[in-house]
Amino acid sequence: MEQTNSRTDEMIQYLRPDMEKYFCRSCQFIQTEIENSGNQVWNELKDIIVRILMNAEVMQKEDKKGCISYLIFSFLNCGVYLNKLELRIEVLDDGFYLDEQEAAGYYCPQLLQTEYLSGIECLRREASEKYIRLQEHELFEINKEYAAFYNTLICKMIESLCGTLMGTVAESEIKIAEDFKIVYGEYMGKAVVLWAR
Question: Total structural domains in the chain?
Answer without folding.
Answer: 1
